[in-house]
Amino acid sequence: xxxxxxxxxxxxxxxxxxxxxxxxxxxxxxxxxxxxxxxxxxxxxxxxxxxxxxxxxxxxxxxxxxxxxxxxxxxxxxxxxxxxxxxxxxxxxxxxxxxxxxxxxxxxxxxxxxxxxxxxxxxxxxxxxxxxxxxxxxxxxxxxxxxxxxxxxxxxxxxxxxxxxxxxxxxxxxxxxxxxxxxxxxxxxxxxxxxxxxxxxxxxxxxxxxxxxxxxxxxxxxxxxxxxxxxxxxxxxxxxxxxxxxxxxxxxxxxxxxxxxxxxxxxxxxxxxxxxxxxxxxxxxxxxxxxxxxxxxxxxxxxxxxxxxxxxxxxx
Length: 316
Description:
The chain is mostly beta strands.
């Protein structure tokens, strides 16, 4: 096998594993086979923290110096990639005082399973309390992890809600339990007043429900929510604790989706409460919001032929 065929086999073996017999003909879902989807998007995301000092009756918010990203993404079959920049013409990008924001995410769909990955890096955090606000350019946060979900209803399309590689033709919803796992770090080693590093590891199981409401032939309103619990391991400068974790999330989307053009907005928020026996309780919230506009066109014949050859050869 030549190098070109080998690379194609590596890519489309994964793609073929995602196909399911019951999805080839479904009156509830339209798939855009052999289409390349291009998309322009505006993205704003952040990981914000709240520290509750019960004995002092004080709440301190750790607010990142946010940036808005303008990006381009390309998707074919299960493969997608994107590129984004934070231009200065967005108001919130003009005065960042050396701050940085990097956010990556990826979602795979093996059958009715859904595998999601996240990475968020932030530098430049404001500590905000009643009648006080201090900005630390060297304070950093880092979050990496993901979630694994199973969609019970084959007539429900999560891709129609968030990724636009499918279209929901009839309204449908699904129970979709989720196992999530994240590592989150607060690093003040390069901040003169703070110093030190804290991190926590969260594992939670969350029953969830999602629904796509087709309000017109090509217009969709989608929503989802989850409530769950698990455990959190926290380490603060060598002092460690393991306690109960509670989580909640809510997502809302609105969009237009034709055979060629599509666009809309998608927003999601996730909140976690880390209950501890110490005098400080930490809450962790991730917000995500994007506006997108896209266009689909036929994939080149050579790309389609190679994919079909691989699928035929490996009986995918």
